[in-house]
Automatic annotation (TrEMBL):
Acyl-CoA oxidase/dehydrogenase middle domain segment(s): 121-225
InterPro entries xrefs: Acyl-CoA_DH_CS (IPR006089), Acyl-CoA_Oxase/DH_mid-dom (IPR006091), Acyl-CoA_Oxase/DH_mid-dom_sf (IPR046373), AcylCo_DH-like_C (IPR036250), AcylCo_DH/oxidase_C (IPR009075), AcylCoA_DH/ox_N (IPR013786), AcylCoA_DH/ox_N_sf (IPR037069), AcylCoA_DH/oxidase_NM_dom_sf (IPR009100)
Protein name (Swiss-Prot/TrEMBL): Acyl-CoA dehydrogenase
Cofactor(s) listed in the protein's UniProt record: FAD
Pfam families per the UniProt record, alphabetical: Acyl-CoA_dh_1, Acyl-CoA_dh_M, Acyl-CoA_dh_N
Length: 391
């Protein structure tokens, strides 16, 4: 067992950490106030990330990505997690699922996305289909023309689609049929690459979210959108399996950003507990303040070990859905507890916009919801424990 980072991993942490401090953090207040990242700023951050070799670090080297393994990308995400999502997402990663692109799709979608010329978003969730994503109503009906054309006609609505307002195309999941399963009739899902300027596609800004100002959710409305069969990603009816192949990576991303953010919050809280005086001594001398600090540090270490272990297992090809679910569940819930306790330690100042604590507290809340709620992670973990026992 080896817990030390290699020299290369240490260099990754230093490089990304410096990028966060010098290129992202200075803009955090402005993004928060505007609830937006001005396009010029977004462009400049992306350019700097590309120049620093940080862009698309999750993608294989032979297609122009950073070629980092799962432990490497987890360390990158951990450092990026120290700032808000609106800024960190400008540096980070295109959807891994794009690696399923074949033939012409690689030139139109995968490669320009890795180069930072095009931007993707992922559209799965619908107003009526969240955790139960297979119950989606968005449908793609295949039509074969007498001229030999092979087209899908897409209709439906997606919501909560992150950064669709900054994207050029979406990975859209739609029902293309049904199958009988032990739990009744279920949709067969297929993935499509949909350019957002295709006739019949409308992108609307969604409600304002309490977490991660400047990182917007959108509605995507599809009305008789005609997609040549070449826009299908992977095989028909295999979209759900395709999603499943990459879901572990996105859950590790949530876990990694959660531990990065928790680390920063803990550091700020330690400084405050050491400096803020009441009753003529630093508040950190009161056990009521210091014991929660011990709990915060312990939970953070545990979350980090669980997350890095899952990433290490991914590199060995042995990571299970349970490993990723445990990391996501524990790290996101630990972040929630740590930010809440941090705010308590700051007292009234913790609630004031003048300090970043209330922001971290608000931002932490979404981590327990997106990429599968805590309940869904518990469901995955408990099923993996009970299924072998026949329960
Ligand atoms: C800010 C934000 C950004 C997002 N970005 C994207 C995106 O880019 N693309 C995308 O496709 N989606 C995105 N999502 C959607 C996100 O993945 C869903 O919100 C999430 O999966 C939960 O679905 P839901 O909100 O419909 O909640 P619901 O599924 O309605 O759940 C409501 C409650 O019921 C519980 N519940 C549901 N089923 C069960 C069960 N079987 N057992 C126990 N409890 C259960 C849930 O845990 C939750 O507490 C985003 C969401 C948010 C908030």
């Amino acid at each position: 067992m080896e817990f030390e980072l290699t020299d290369e991993q240490r260099m990754i942490v230093e490089t990304v950490g410096k990028f966060v401090r010098t290129e992202l953090d200075p803009h955090a207040d402005e993004v928060e106030k505007l609830d937006d990242v001005p396009p010029e700023l977004a462009r400049s951050i992306r350019e700097k990330a590309i120049a620093a070799g940080l862009y698309a670090a999750n993608m294989p080297e032979d297609i122009g990505g950073g070629g980092l393994d799962a432990v490497g990308i987890t360390l990158v995400e951990r450092e990026l997690g120290k700032t808000g999502f609106a800024l960190q997402m400008l540096v980070a990663r295109p959807s891994n699922i794009l690696q399923a692109c074949e033939g012409e799709q690689r030139d139109r979608y995968l490669l320009p996305t890795v180069r930072g010329e095009r931007h993707d978003c992922l559209a799965m969730t619908e107003p009526g289909a969240g955790s139960d994503v297979r119950s989606m109503r968005t449908r793609a009906v295949r039509e074969s023309g007498s001229d030999g054309s092979d087209t899908y006609v897409l209709n439906g609505t997606k919501h909560f689609i992150s950064h669709a307002d900054m994207a050029d195309f979406a990975l859209v999941f739609a029902a293309t049929g049904t199958e009988e399963t032990a739990r009744g009739t279920k949709n067969l899902i297929t993935a499509f690459l949909v350019d957002l300027d295709t006739p019949g596609v409308e992108v609307r800004r969604g409600s304002q979210c309490v977490s991660h100002r400047g990182y917007h959710q959108c509605e995507l409305i599809f009305t008789d959108v005609r997609l040549p069969a070449g826009q299908r990603l992977g095989e028909e009816g295999r979209g759900f399996a395709l999603m499943g192949e990459w879901l572990g990576a996105s859950r590790l991303q949530v876990a990694a950003t959660s531990i990065g953010r928790a680390r920063r919050v803990l550091d700020l809280t330690l400084d405050w507990a050491a400096e803020r005086e009441q009753f003529a001594q630093p508040i950190g001398r009161f056990q009521g303040v210091s014991f929660p600090l011990a709990d915060m540090a312990t939970e953070l270490e545990a979350a980090e070990l669980l997350t890095l272990r899952a990433a290490w297992k991914q590199d060995q090809g042995t990571m299970t859905d349970r490993d990723a679910a445990m990391a996501k569940l524990y790290a996101s819930e630990a972040l929630g507890r740590i930010t809440d306790q941090a705010l308590q330690t700051f007292g009234g100042m913790g609630l004031m916009a003048e300090l970043p604590i209330e922001r971290y507290w608000r931002d932490a809340r979404v981590e327990r919801i997106w990429d599968g709620t805590s309940e869904i992670q518990r469901h995955i973990i408990s099923r993996s424990l009970l299924r072998p026992l026949g329960a």
